[in-house]
């Protein structure tokens, strides 16, 4: 476990990464995206921040607050509906026209809307939480690879789990299987997101990819909840959930442990949630898998100024240290492992992911994703 004090100490040393860090916050107009962005602005030296969302009114308020926290920074709001991949591409073009590199891509876009399709014939919840996030990462990956002091992608997801073990132990349960056009289950879509990050890491092993599971916190939710008016009921289609069900649901249903009753988790203050996510977004505890300058681009040193002790390098989703893709819990622990006790902090998550890889799920999911990108936009990448 990484203590909050250790996280705060690390965050206070973000200035060691140099000035002019470029950060993109997708879903930065509320919740954990807003909180993390404010903490980043507070600690970074002359940062250039782009935040993307739908509410211009919220953006005006936030921009004033950011300028108050750090007058030396530059803050740009991009108003758009990220449920449409065409809008995602336009937002990326806007950023690329102004920047030559990106240090941090932090994604929290979410929605409470279910039961409808987008104008691009993608199921709305999946478009917001999966396709658009992966499209942002794919489009901006070359700019992340050009960075010289920090290269990181963080996607915040599955905040509904009240205990870290929940996301693994209830990943696939018979009573969770939908019979119609229902929203992606958080646990199932969690596995989908992690496998997609592993696919992206194959193309960019010099970038860190983190799938973060924050604790419940107050007063807001961890993703930007995007309301919209229903368009139409959607038929069952080839969504990632249907793909998951077809490829690996039936073979492993019988082997899954029964869901256990878990005690409720007290929500933490939103400011603390932002501090914890900022540590995840900037600490060298989570280095990229490889690259000639991994040490230079890993983030804030994991040596504690106060005690002289080192925070250990995290284990990746494959169970090995420093392998570039990480499942991270609210206390900074890596998926499936607790650095002090050696016991599973995220239950069977690494074992489950291993099983899915062996069933060729990662490749099949990625082929499905790029096929949808091509159908909607005409190209795999922008």
From TrEMBL:
Q: Which Gene3D superfamilies match?
A: NAD(P)-binding Rossmann-like Domain
Q: Does the keyword Amino-acid biosynthesis apply?
A: no
UniProt key word Oxidoreductase: yes
Q: Which UniProt keywords apply?
A: Oxidoreductase
Q: Where are the transmembrane segments?
A: none
Single GO MF annotation: oxidoreductase activity
State the superkingdom.
Answer: Eukaryota
InterPro entries from the xrefs? NAD(P)-bd_dom_sf (IPR036291), SDR_fam (IPR002347), Sec_Metab_Biosynth_Oxidored (IPR052228)
**Signal peptide limits:** none
- Protein name as annotated: 3-keto-steroid reductase
**Naturally occurring in which organism (per UniProt):** Podospora fimiseda
